[in-house]
Design goal:
Blueprint lengths: L1 H20 L1 H16 L6 E7 L5 E6 L2 E6 L5 E8 L15 E6 L9 E3 L8 E8 L3 E4 L3 E3 L5 E5 L5 E9 L5 H6 L4 E3 L3 E4 L5 E5 L6 E11 L2 E2 L6 E6 L3 H14 L3 H42 L2
Parallel strand pairs: 1-7, 9-17
Antiparallel strand pairs: 1-4, 2-3, 2-5, 5-6, 8-10, 10-14, 11-12, 11-13, 11-15, 15-16, 15-17
Length: 301
């Protein structure tokens, strides 16, 4: 009985000793185990392949999923080891989270995002493709003076047909359209151009009519059409806006010196008012002298 009591006392003493003199070491071991647990990823795997603008960066995102790759010069890309996280299975464990793809170029301009349908969680491995990403579309500027030449340009897969869609605001609004609160637009007939060997394409924006415009594109390859690009808005403005734009640039350039300009203008105004006041005083003085001389001449016999 005394032996058991001594052993129990020794174990309690040893535990207190370790906790008192080595608390950090014990805590570090616990944290290490926690990191290993949170770093564990799901087993189900997914392979996604497709075509994006040539040499663009393709990003894959979703709940608990993030990856990126670079499309080759022909626009082909592949994610061959995408792990689907089982701890994010939604809808009562019936499907994996939604996955979206988006391409971007070196200027950070991007294609429109493409989101895949949620995959059933009944399978472990999936292969999805080919997924077509939209062209990347850029315009030089969105406020254009009538008659000015402005380019729209972008990137897609090499030697590919690009369908151009332009729409201008419809000014013939009806009562029904106002009640429906719908933005009406008139689409001009689409036309096609082709990208070059590097996937680059460009075209001129219509600037002969003052209006608000929208533009977007599709790429077409092997009878397959990509999702449409991001829709970009631009306005064609009257010629006198060029003067307003120039004035705005001048004011923007002179803004750091604006306070000095105001002080100088106030000084000039004050100087002018002082000059006019002195001039008025001289005029009154001359008038008084002339009146005095006239009075003296009248008093002479």
């Amino acid at each position: 009985m005394h032996v058991i009591t001594f052993k129990a006392f020794f174990l309690v003493f040893l535990t207190l000793f370790l906790n008192l003199f080595y608390p950090n070491k014990t805590k570090a071991n616990t944290n290490s185990e926690e990191v290993k647990i949170t770093a564990t990823i799901g087993e189900p795997k997914l392979k996604i392949f497709g075509f994006a603008p040539s040499l663009s960066t393709v990003k894959l995102t979703g709940v608990g999923i993030s990856d990126q790759t670079t499309a080759d010069k022909n626009g082909f890309f592949v994610f061959d080891k995408v792990y689907l996280p089982t701890n994010y299975i939604i809808n009562d464990k019936s499907s994996y989270p939604e996955i979206c793809l988006q391409a971007s170029d070196e200027s950070k301009a991007s294609s429109s995002p493409v989101c895949l349908p949620q995959l059933p969680a009944s399978q472990i491995a999936y292969e999805v493709g080919p997924v077509l990403l939209s062209p990347i579309l850029i315009i030089e500027k969105n406020k254009i003076i009538k008659g000015e030449q402005v380019l729209a340009f972008g990137k897609t897969t090499p030697n590919t047909a690009v369908s151009i869609h332009l729409a201008r605001e419809d000014k013939n609004f009806s009562l029904a359209s106002l009640l429906a609160k719908e933005a009406k637009a008139f689409f001009i007939p689409e036309y096609k151009i082709f990208s070059n060997e590097e996937g680059y394409f460009e075209f001129n924006l219509p600037t002969n009519q003052i209006n608000s415009w929208r533009v977007f594109t599709f790429s077409e390859s092997n009878q397959a059409r990509s999702p449409r690009s991001n829709t970009l808005n631009f306005k064609v403005l009257p010629p006198y806006f060029s003067f307003i734009e120039l004035l705005g640039k001048m004011l923007s350039t002179l803004q750091p010196y604006l306070i000095y300009f105001i002080i100088m203008m106030l000084f000039l105004i004050a100087f002018y008012l002082l000059y006019q006041l002195l001039k008025l005083n001289d005029s009154n003085k001359n008038l008084s002298e002339h009146s005095g001389e006239s009075l003296l001449n009248r008093q002479k016999p």
